[in-house]
Amino acid sequence: MSLERTSRYMSLILRHKPEVIGIQLDEHGWANVEELIAGIAKTQEFNRDILELIVRTDEKQRYSFNEDGTLIRANQGHSIPVDVELKEMQPPETLWHGTGEKYVASIDQQGLNPRTRLYVHLSKDRETAKKVGQRHGKPVLYLVKAEEMYNDGYRFYRSENGVWLTKEVPVKYLERKSK
């Protein structure tokens, strides 16, 4: 059993397709832990200990339990409409977005859009954005003028794991940077 592969499968279920194991998420993205365990255990070795290990050791802190541990959800990155109860926050002066070289022409023309997700994901520092960009090929970094956007009326949220989220980033707030 690969924890990484199981974590990716959980991510698919909790962010995009809960129906693949026959469960439903509530309006806030929460899934019943026992139903999740039972659904995943139909195809691979999976139990509460493995689930807790994945949540505890996930370097991106993708998942959260509710207070009594009966529910679990992905912290962000959903493509299905859920309200993960993000609190609006004033962002720092600048944030970062890492992407692959193949997306540069589109971003330079249209800005950042969430595409299949509910929000655009932004990083608090250059190094994190670079790691994100590397997952998409040769990385390209954009500096986001977040404070200026906020002052112009755009809303920002910070997820449980520190990822900054917003609905879009128009071109005028982006500055392409060399790695």
From TrEMBL:
Pfam families: PTS_2-RNA. Its EC number is 2.7.1.-. The gene is kptA. Removes the 2'-phosphate from RNA via an intermediate in which the phosphate is ADP-ribosylated by NAD followed by a presumed transesterification to release the RNA and generate ADP-ribose 1''-2''-cyclic phosphate (APPR>P). May function as an ADP-ribosylase. Belongs to the KptA/TPT1 family. SUPFAM superfamilies: ADP-ribosylation. This is Probable RNA 2'-phosphotransferase. InterPro entries: Ptrans_KptA/Tpt1, RNA_2'-PTrans_C, RNA_2'-PTrans_KptA, RNA_2'-PTrans_N. It comes from the Bacteria. It comes from Faecalicatena fissicatena. It is an enzyme of class 2 (transferase). Keywords: NAD, Transferase. The keyword NADP does not apply.
